[in-house]
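Fold this sequence, please.
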Amino acid sequence: VSSNKTNIYLENGTLFFEVFAPGFSKSDIKIDVGNNTLSVTGKKDVVDEKSRKFVMREFSNSFANFHRNFSLPEGLNVEAADASYNCGILTISIPYATKEKELTRNISIN
């Protein structure tokens, strides 16, 4: 199980995770959030490379499985989390919860 490279950034009140995961399909990837932890797991079938006679080899199937855990900061709205997978990049977005504006009013003295 490898640990895929990840970019994490904050933009417009949303925390983004970009996980490098080429060669996977959406069904190969599982995303869980709980206990202030984001867990991302990718599993796919591995081709038996022992039977191949390579002329040239620049990559292997060693990245067939991966698992990453990320500690999440307080104040995120995990119910509004979203994910997309495009061109080998898994993007997960979790917005910060919006704070309700305090209601203020003038109280008259009777």
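The mean pLDDT is 85. The CA atoms of residues 16 and 59 lie 28 Å apart.
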